[in-house]
Design goal:
The structure holds two protein chains of two kinds. By secondary structure, chain A is an all-alpha fold. Chain A has a domain of 195 residues. Chain B folds into two domains: 174 residues, Rossmann fold (3-Layer(aba) Sandwich); 56 residues, no CATH class. Chain B has a six-stranded mixed β-sheet, with helices on both faces. In chain B, strands 2-1-4-5 form a four-stranded antiparallel β-sheet. In chain B, strand 4 and strand 5 form a beta hairpin. Chain B is globular and about 60 Å long. Chain B starts with 8 loop residues before the first strand and ends with a helix. Chains A and B meet through helix 7, helix 8 and helix 9 of A and helix 2, helix 3, helix 4 and helix 5 of B. Chain A: Keywords: Amino-acid transport, Cell membrane, Membrane, Transmembrane, Transmembrane helix, Transport. Chain A: It comes from Vineibacter terrae. Chain A: GO terms for molecular function: transmembrane transporter activity. Chain A: It is found in: Cell membrane.
């Protein structure tokens, strides 16, 4: 085993985990809302980008922004439907509603795009870099850099701008925020649109690694749960750390033990961390 | 009603029902700019329900007018933007934000760039943010909250100052009508004096102040008029002196002892 190569693999995997999870992290942190349709949104975004390339003939670099835009619009529609439940913070119903959205999206995607696996190809995936024994693609570089940039900007916005203060104030107490004249409903829409757009970006960068399937939603983001909870619910920095930690763990565990048991092992790590630090990595 | 002009805030026939329980029944009162209206009554009389009803935070029947304009159907945040705001019995601030950020949140509507512009033109956001920071610091300082405390979180300042902060935040960039729910709860002595001064300061700034309070000495000292609520209904209304002489009020508070 080449350790440096595994570290590179870990970084690449980890940036993907973190990127796919970031929307959910913000959603949980800012709206105290879980979205069990997250995986199906990831799947849908990948298929939309794929379809744009296949049917419209646009390039990968146009298809991904298109799919990000489409998911953002879908976010407005979904949040519009959930608005009253969100304002009441009716979390149990919301969980089931998002689960329902997920199945509707999955069914519709299978109906429209068919049940066969498809190749969502990125030109950057084919452009690889070889440094001696080490190997990675430009897609990996873009994913890594893009993830770091997105997390950096997001951290700045949430912690250093009034927009961020607004989001944090609604997260803490939507009723009080309304009494301060803040339109909490609008903030919730904004956060949900970010969640949908971010997972579309994640799909655009991560999904080309493997064939895409209409039924892949849940499996593809199962590790998102681990990243979000491990990082400390709603913590941006924590989920970046958790994403990279999990990526590194997956790469090394896969190389040293067996790739077949990585998911089980990742959840074992999650359980261990939560027993020792119930608040996740970011807990004070 | 005083004078020819419409009162700053008028509520008419407010009724709140929680299932079978009628928490507030046919409540009517008004407050003018630069006036303090006290609302008193036993626990469970419907005082806080009254505030929730005015700010459209519970489903209710009845009417609300602000500056002579009917605002019954406006949602809470629109009322707040028009200057009708309230505080809670509990401290009303964001525990995870600093005092300065809290004040900025409280003044957000007045000092803000629209969401789209703040994303597309971040440098404008920065300039607006600096102005908002200055305004927030000025707000806190003008109500006697020292600059040393502005960077702290609310949990790290004295309890008496926390109570002040809740009221100052609700005033924000200049509320017109403030509904203040038990500002002096849990305070005493010097802190209560500071709160009384704050309420009088708000009256001097031409705010229409409505205060729910259990401390009779405080409310009798600063209120211009008082409404007494018992079991969801208005029992009496008048100046502090009139209320102190009112038979029905004495009976409700003390039982048929007199």
């Amino acid at each position: 085993m080449n350790l440096t190569q595994q570290v590179i693999n870990g970084l690449v995997l980890g940036s993907g985990y973190a990127l796919v999870a970031i929307g959910w992290t913000v959603l949980l942190g800012a709206a105290r809302l879980v979205n069990f349709a997250h995986g199906q949104l990831y799947m849908l975004a990948a298929f939309l980008a794929w379809a744009a390339m296949q049917k419209l003939g646009v390039s990968y670099f146009v298809a991904v922004p298109l799919s990000v835009l489409a998911l953002g619009l879908l976010g407005v529609a979904l949040q519009g439907m959930m608005q009253r439940l969100v304002m009441q913070q009716n979390l149990t119903s919301l969980m089931i509603v998002t689960l329902g959205f997920g199945y509707v999206i999955q069914g519709s995607a299978a109906r429209i795009f068919g049940g066969d696996p498809q190749t969502f190809a990125s030109p950057l995936e084919k452009a690889s870099v070889h440094l001696g024994e080490l190997w990675f693609t430009w897609q990996d570089v873009v994913t890594l850099v893009g993830t770091l940039l997105l997390f950096g900007v997001l951290w700045l916005v949430l912690n250093r701008t009034r927009l961020g203060a607004l989001v944090r104030s609604v997260a803490e107490d939507p009723k009080l925020a309304q009494l301060f004249g803040i339109n909490a409903a609008q903030v919730y829409i904004g956060v949900f649109v970010f969640e949908c757009a971010a997972v579309a970006l994640g799909a655009g960068l991560v999904a080309p690694r493997s064939p895409i399937l209409a039924s892949m939603g849940f499996d593809e983001v199962i590790l998102t749960f681990v990243v979000v909870v491990l990082g400390g619910i709603g913590s941006v920095g924590g989920s970046l750390l958790a994403g990279f930690g999990l990526g590194m763990f997956t790469a090394l565990f896969g190389a040293l033990v067996s790739p077949a048991y990585t998911t089980a092992a990742a959840f074992l790590v999650l359980l261990t961390v939560l027993v020792v630090r119930p608040g996740g990595l970011a807990a004070r | 009603m005083t004078g020819a002009a419409a009162p700053l805030l008028r509520v008419e026939g407010l009724t709140v029902r929680y299932g079978a329980l009628t928490a507030l029944s046919d409540m009517s009162w008004h407050v003018d700019a630069g006036e303090i209206l006290g609302i008193i009554g036993p626990n469970g009389a419907g005082k806080s329900s009254c505030f929730a009803a005015v700010t459209n935070a519970v489903s209710r029947s009845g009417e609300v007018w602000l500056d002579g304009e009917r605002v019954t159907g406006l949602p809470t945040h629109r009322l707040a933007q028009r200057g009708l705001r309230r505080t809670f019995q509990q401290n009303a601030f964001f525990g995870e934000l600093s005092l300065l950020e809290n004040a900025m949140a409280a003044m957000l509507h007045e000092h803000s760039t629209p969401l789209g512009r703040s994303i597309l033109l971040p440098w404008q956001e920065a300039a607006v943010r600096r102005r908002a920071q200055a305004a927030a610091a000025a707000l806190l300082t003008s109500f006697g909250i020292a600059p040393d405390d502005h960077g702290k979180r609310p949990g790290d300042i004295a309890y008496g100052t926390q109570r002040l902060l809740s009221v100052v935040l609700s005033y924000g960039a200049g509320a017109r009508a403030l509904l203040i729910d038990e500002p002096a709860a849990g305070t005493g002595g010097g802190d209560m004096k500071r709160l009384a001064d704050l309420l009088v300061d708000l009256r001097r700034r031409q705010v229409g102040v409505v205060v729910i309070e259990h401390h009779m000495d405080l409310i009798m000292a600063i209120a211009d008029r008082i409404v007494v609520i018992d079991q969801g209904r208005k029992l009496a209304e008048g100046t502090p002196a009139e209320i102190q002489r009112n038979e029905a009020v004495l009976e409700a508070y003390l039982g048929r002892a007199a």
